[in-house]
Design goal:
This protein is mainly β. It has one helix and eight strands.
Length: 181
Amino acid sequence: MAIFALLVFLPSFAMASNPMFAENTENSIALYIGQGTGSGTLFKLVDPVLWNFESMTNLMLQYSQPMEIFRLPSRMNFNLVQNFGYHNTEGLSFTAIGVSWDVAIINWRGFYLGLGVGPYMRDSKDRYVESRLVFGEKFFIGKNISDNWRAEIFTLHFSNGDFTETNHGFNFAGLAINYSF
């Protein structure tokens, strides 16, 4: 019942403009840079106490277009991902391509808070996740820093939803810069 109420009443608080895009723009490009926060649970998205920094860096280039989901400002994304594991013995480097959808749940005075989800296809398997297909979940807080520029703090989780026996997941926290045009 609470989820139903959220879906019915939350859109009425949404502002007409999309905080993830500048006014009268239909495209954006973003660069995400994240540090590995350890394998494990999806709860690492919102609980920094669980983070244990690992020797991994994640770069993601994202192209987006605005949309609405349940009348909430949203964006549809095409993502190119490169994960760098610093030590060859770890075997945790991979390249991935995917699509995702982000929703700005709260939009207040130039700040926005949102969630995202989407499927990704990786080029390799590793000891953290045994499949090439993974799902990405993202939590982010953004700020409009000028007419066309936004900055975001994000956490990102990749796993395969326990489709295989080995599914430790990848977790990242970092910063993103977004340009709307």
